[in-house]
Specification:
252 residues; mainly beta; SH3 type barrels; 2 domains; twelve-stranded mixed β-sheet; five-stranded mixed β-sheet; 9% helix; 40% strand
């Protein structure tokens, strides 16, 4: 089952994707908090504008260095935070900061938390996960500090596109992750290359933070990503979730 957040006018709504008819079955309220009761209305996907499927109430938790390094030792993944103001949806512009010189894209699988939780055992992670979505974790590489915070490099507005759907019934252990720049394929990996499986990542993150409904965990990116400039369009395609893309711009 895949769920979208969308607009046809000024008011965001939620819908379950009917893959046979390419329609959204409209939900009464936010499914994370109100369940999957429907209104009976249907909206064609072509008549809707898909938004980020979730706007975190609290935080986005990101991981870096979480994939195996071919021929090298695997470092302990680094954990960082991004605010909900970094989140945008499909087709929204990624606005490069004036002060950032080298910005990289990072296609990822993202976990959407469904209930308040802390210190979750690995075997119970599925109980606290609402679903999974696709993400692009942009990083201002020239702003990374090896001895200090990553906030300036990671947390800027529009740096976390999410979409196009949240998939509820996904096994995250072997999910293909792909990216493209101007339709040219660049990244092609799988969550089976993670140093730690997704459920273990969620469990370990929950040891650090209390996780709230709607929080998002970015599980990291496989190799093949790189620097981009304004004027390109970067696409992300995560198996069983869907594909989306964003134009990249720089404003004076």
């Amino acid at each position: 089952m895949r769920i979208a957040r969308f607009v046809t006018d000024d008011n965001p709504r939620y819908g379950i994707l009917d893959e046979e008819t390419d329609e959204l079955i409209v939900l009464k309220n936010d499914p994370i908090f109100a369940g999957l009761d429907t209104t009976g209305e249907r909206v064609r996907v072509d008549d809707a504008r898909l938004l980020s499927p979730v706007i975190p109430r609290s935080k986005v938790v990101g991981l870096a260095r979480s994939f195996h390094i071919p021929g090298g030792p695997d470092p302990e993944p680094a954990i960082f935070l991004k605010p909900n103001t970094s989140v945008i949806g499909p087709d929204d512009p990624v606005v490069l900061p004036r002060w950032a010189g080298e910005v990289w894209y990072e296609a990822e699988l993202a976990v959407v938390i469904g209930r308040l939780c802390k210190d979750v055992p690995v075997e119970r992670v599925d109980e606290v996960v609402f679903g999974y979505t696709a993400a692009n974790d942009y990083t201002a590489k020239d702003q990374l500090s090896p001895s200090g915070t990553w906030t300036r490099a990671k947390a800027w507005d529009t740096s976390t596109p999410l979409g196009p759907y949240i998939t509820l019934d996904l096994d995250p252990d072997d999910v293909a992750i792909r990216a493209s720049v101007d339709d040219v394929p660049t990244q092609d990996g799988s969550t089976n290359q993670l140093v730690k499986p997704v459920r273990e990542i969620v469990a370990e993150v929950s040891e650090i933070f209390t996780l709230l409904p709607g929080d998002v965990i970015l599980t990291g990116t496989p190799g093949g990503n790189g620097a981009i400039e304004a004027g390109v369009r970067v696409g992300v395609d995560v198996e069983h979730i869907g594909a989306f893309s964003n134009p990249v711009v720089r404003r004076d």
